[in-house]
Structures are given as C-alpha cells and as structure tokens.
Amino acid sequence: MTYDVGYRFAQALDPSGLDTIAACLHAIQAAAKDCRNAGKPFETDPAVVLLAQHLAAVARAKMPDRAALRSLCGQAVAEIARTPLLTVLAARGVDHDADAKRTFHTEARRALRRLAEALQLASGTYEIRVCAGGPAVSGEVILHGDELYVQVSIGGFGRGEILLRRCRGRSDYVGERNHWARMAELVDPATLAARIARELGLAMPVELQPRLVA
C-alpha cells in the first residue's frame, strides 16, 4: 500500500478550497493521518498547524465576536438544562445511533421509576425491563405491573411515544384498550400518574386526588 504523505503540505500552502468549518476539520484529520503514515508527530507538523490556523480564520469569519459566542453558549447550556433529555431524544430519534439509544433506555427507566413512585406502586408489584430491538429501532422500555402496562418507545406507531393500558397481572401482554401519551408527559410523573389513574380506572394516590376548596 502506498501513501500520499506529502499532500498535507500542498493543501496547507493553498487552502483556498477549505471555506467551511467541516472542510477544515476534514483536512486536519486527513493531515493527521498522513503524519501517522509517515511516522511523524502531528502536533508539531507545520502542515497540520497551518491548517489549524486556517480553521481559526474560517471560524472567525463565521462569527468574530468572542463575547457573543460565549453568551450564546451560555444560553444554549441554560436551554439544555430546561429541556428534559427524553424529549430531546424523542424529537431527534435514536435509530442507528447506539449511544443515543443507550441513553434513551437509561433515561426512560429512570422516568418509569419516578412514575411508579408517583403511582405509589409497592415494591415487588411491578418490573421495569428493556426490549432493545435492532439498530434501526429505539426498542421499548416497559413498566409492567399487576394492573398497569406502560411501554415507552421513540418513532413507533400509534398516537404517541407512550402506550398505556390496564392489564391483569404480569403475564398479561395484551391488556385492555390502549391509551397514548407523549414523551413530554412522562417527564411530569405526578400529572401523568393522575391521568393514568383517571383514564384506566386505577386507585389514585391520596396526594394526587383533587381537593375540595372550602
């Protein structure tokens, strides 16, 4: 196998075709690979350094105000903190993204545990399990209790990402009529628990019952 270990120098000397951040990053990665092929350290390679400086120039041209960039990053961090990860994953999808899929399973299990607490389900009366499925699907995260079946998935069928139905024990995988909820409802376990109790005819926890105003 032959390597064009000199190409990085020609590109660094004439980077006129590298006018986007993505193109610059690709050129730097290719130059680093050339260095490895040539047995040279890429951290001090003049072509790599020149290409990195060109990347900085392209980035400055996109948005030169550093203070504004820091402010936008701060706003983005605040927005991320306000937006539950489950709703972000539901919006973007997790198919063919193993890391996102694992994160979805973890976050959905946590949300279903909070839902079980809001419903005051006793320990041992329910289980939470994952059906991972293949790489093209999100799989399902399931809370299966003695009277309740909740299935969470992304990009599935039906009128929402969350399937709700009453069941007769943990051997009942068919249950009664299906109800549907959106992912945003799962991140508010108390409200969803009250809806589940009301629509499925389950006993409503005392703190979720409507109170009469004197």
Describe the structure.
By secondary structure, the chain is of the alpha+beta class. The protein is built from 8 helices and 5 strands. It has helices at residues 7-13, 21-38, 46-62, 66-82, 85-92, 98-118, 183-186, 189-200, and strands at residues 126-131, 140-145, 148-152, 162-166, 179-181. The chain has a 5-stranded antiparallel beta sheet. The longest helix has 21 residues, at 98-118. The termini are far apart.
What's the quick description here?
The protein is an alpha+beta fold and 214 residues long.
Portion in helices:
40-55%
What's the count of strands? 5
Any idea what the shape is? elongated
Estimate what percentage of residues fall within beta strands. 5-15%
Mean pLDDT: 87
Question: Number of folding domains?
Answer: 2
| Largest pleated sheet | 5 strands, antiparallel
Structural class, please?
Answer: alpha+beta
Strand order of the largest sheet: 1-2-3-4-5
Distance between the termini: 86 Å
Which helices and strands occur, and which strands form pairs?
Blueprint: H1 7-13, H2 21-38, H3 46-62, H4 66-82, H5 85-92, H6 98-118, E1 126-131, E2 140-145, E3 148-152, E4 162-166, E5 179-181, H7 183-186, H8 189-200
Antiparallel strand pairs: 1-2, 2-3, 3-4, 4-5
Helix pairs in contact: 1-2, 1-3, 2-3, 6-8
